[in-house]
Model the fold of this input.
Amino acid sequence: MEPTLEANPLLEPTRTERIPDPCVMVIFGASGDLTKRKLIPAIFDLARQGLLPSGFTIVGAGRTRMDDDSFRSYMHDAMREFGRLTGQESELWQNFARNLHYITVDSSNPQEFELLRNELHAIDERRSTGGSFLFYLATPPDLYSPIVRHIGMAGLNRPRTPHGWVRIIIEKPFGTDLDSARKLNAEVLSVFTEDQVYRIDHYLGKETVQNLLVFRFANVIFEPIWNRNYVDHIQITAAETVGVENRGGYYERAGVLRDMIQNHMLQLLSLTAMEPPVLFDAQQVRDEKHKVFQAIRSIKPEEAHRFTVRGQYKAGTVGGKSVVGYRNEKGVSPTSETETYVAVKFIIDNWRWADVPFYVRSGKRLPKRVTEIAIQFKKTPHHLFTSLPDMLEHNNIVIRIQPDEGISLKFSSKVPGSSMRMRPVTMDFRYGTSFGVHLADAYTRLILDCMLGDATLYARGDSVDVAWSLITPILEGWKSNRESRVYDYPSGTWGPKESDAMLQGDGRRWRLP
Ligand code: BG6
Done:
């Protein structure tokens, strides 16, 4: 009989969540896109789950002139527009919105931070938030340095009371290359201590990404085969159907290598490749991930064209709709050489992964939205069924990060009947079926963790540094090496054919997700 959701023991109430200490959260860039699309919906979700502390207050800060009421109604409209508020939640929203405030601040003006400080101290008194402040930098990245500096000058980098705390969440991109990331890190660490700094990578907040640790380290059956003895290679894919949308200006300077690989994809790679930590805490988990970053072989500028393939989408059809090419997008130069697709072959020089390539690819305007990690196992050492040479496929484990979140294991099975025929079949775990719950947005988990002082799912400064030191020589190679070029691919296809050729050269091919 099919198991029913009602009979599912995993649906038993499991409320073990901690509620954070009261604090005031200050969002810089409050009138921007991220605040309305991600941050306020995520914090409202915490309110919905009863996880916000009493007195919790949000102060939106930005250059745009607004008062509290217009900020509240701007956020309300956005919540409705993005379907994050149901008709039955108007009372909950009203209560939540009462704790939303807005202060106009020009980030380049230190005096305005003194006014901000006085205002925040007054709110702290009024709301009994214990002198604790959480700053969130959701502004364009060129404002990170002045904001951090002015927070320091106004003395807002230290708690007001002995039991209070001050933390700062910094959005990506954290720098644009190794030098700029180091400079920003030094500036941030001249005002805050490392344990106050939370560099956010929203991929780490995804349930399916966190589950990688549970899958690998809370089960005994996978770890023994998670190494070069059994694994042939690993493919990590983040494919998007969207183009650059209205972010052409930003994307022109970023490209997919900076936008997706330096952060999200390398984070997925490190979680897949890391050794078991001794404890599940911020230091141990991040130490193990850091060792992976350090073991990734650096791709020298002169070999960038052998280890990477970049592409740019041309006009085509995605999901039955005609779309324009990248060079015709708003804010994009008609002669742009920015890559919207990249495939990279990473080698990890350590005992566990020697000779096991990690092929990582990400692109926009691909045929399907899918993010997954595929562990491709080796062939059986001895082929018993010699009369069926082509039917034996490699085993694989595919961790589906999104959508259709789950994990599947592919193995060969005999096709029922009197002859010996076989076919690959899969065992499949789906979050929807097993847990019957809607997976929370990554930001919800990450903001809660920061309020609780848990940095396990945030990127540490030294790892961000190593990640840039891996990416920067590739960028240099692309610029200086004439053999390296940007290949075209029609929108709605799986990237340039040169990307397939890179794997074919190794006797492998990309999975069709
Ligand atoms: C962001 C990138 O960090 O991640 C975007 O800047 C990308 O370009 C997005 O679209 C993808 O995130 P997700 O959660 O939709 O996979």
The longest helix spans residues 248-273. DSSP finds 14 helices and 17 strands in the chain. The two ends are 30 Å apart (CA to CA).
